Amino acid sequence: YHTVAATLGLVLAIQLVGALYWWVEDRRGSWIAWMRRARGATAASDVRADLLDAVGRLNRALRTVLLAGILLSFLTVTLRLFPATAPVVGAMLLYVADPARDIALAILHYVPNLGYLTIIGGLGWLVLRLLRYLFRALEGGSLILRGFHAEWAEPTYKLLRTLLFLFLLMVSFPYLPGAGSQFFQGFSVFVGALLTLGSTGAIGNIVAGTVLTYTRAFRVGDMVRLGETYGVVIEKTLLVTRLRTVEHEEVPVPNSSVLAGAVVNF
Predict the structure, then answer these.
(1) Which of 51, 158, 166, 191 lies 20 to 30 Å from 181, alpha-carbon distance?
(2) Stated pTM of the model
(3) To the nearest 5 percent, what fractions of the chain are helix, strand and coil?
């Protein structure tokens, strides 16, 4: 009788998980259909479509985990009802109970750190939105600051955004899982050494690109000579400046080379 009751509970639990899964899928399908009607075929490449796809994958993974947990619970309860299989279940629980308890305690102890990370992430998101709004206004001309040119808005925003991300990472580091472990510390030292040894040229180009931006040596669309290369500036980034020559060749010139040489703006 106990086994029959457990079996009925198993069927009911599977039905509930299935109902929840298909409810989420129906809602997701409705959102996808609405997006396709609103934006046409381009909705497939929209960020919202990617998020909905991620929700679908998470929903399937959650269904699998719940069904596996329900089935394992059913087997544990059912096998303990019979004298022949009860010792096997007891031995299995003895091996599984301690790791499960340690994992549960680790998750419980990490909850305050997760709260700190949530607050830090929320404040960082608000500051990023404020910076984006401010520099869009400066770029569009609706906000004017004396001595600040509109063409500086986008590179300044990208620079401040990078500094903000680095600051948030520095503040959040002590609250990350395993931040105090020797493995995490050794891995951090390895990544730092790798970036230090491998990014010297890139950092030089980034500094040179920042200097060129604020000195206003040239702008996109200007005809310039950078060293021995003549052409029209078609793109300015922190790493390279791209020129289109009279032969319609695109030539990327490293910003460190541009800053070290003479710039002739025609």
Answers:
(1) 166
(2) 0.56
(3) 75, 10, 15
